[in-house]
Design a protein that fits this description.
The protein is an alpha+beta fold and about 140 residues long. The protein has 4 helices and 6 strands; from the N terminus they run H-E-E-H-E-E-H-E-E-H.
């Protein structure tokens, strides 16, 4: 199971509650949670996957942001992975109200650029494949 699948499962378990999952030196929140944190705490969003945002909070700043979320009265869950025991660890949680943020991305320039870039790559790959096929056909016809 990959990181994004794990996050998706945790987010389903805690629907409309903020889920942070540790990834390296950051705790990451994604999609609607990221958009919510961007709107409420002005955390900077970046692309998680096509049309999905993420926000990252450095490990040493997590408590400061969790305190702000608590003051707003919202629920959160903070997870990490114990790689030695291969288990998911619930580090912290706060029971509060749920957020009902609509949309998993803020349609920022970064997402628009990533989408255009991704679409360009797919288009280029398709055109390259078509040219290669055409070249093979021409070579077979000449030969």
């Amino acid at each position: 199971m990959g990181y994004s699948q794990m996050v998706d499962i945790l987010r389903k378990e805690h629907k409309n509650e903020i889920v942070f999952v540790r990834a390296g030196a950051f705790y990451i929140a994604v999609e609607e949670d990221a958009v919510f944190l961007n709107n409420k705490l002005k955390l900077k969003c970046s692309c998680y996957k096509k049309n999905s945002c993420k926000v990252g909070v450095p490990i040493n700043a997590l408590d400061k942001y969790l305190e702000k979320v608590e003051k707003l009265g919202y629920a959160y869950h903070v997870y990490s992975v114990n790689k030695e025991k291969i288990e998911l660890v619930l580090e912290k949680e706060h029971m509060g109200k749920k957020h009902y943020t609509q949309g998993n991305h803020i349609n920022c320039l970064m997402c628009k650029g990533a989408n255009a870039y991704a679409d360009d790559i797919y288009l280029e790959a398709l055109l390259k494949r078509q040219k290669e096929k055409q070249g093979l056909i021409e070579n077979e016809w000449k030969g």
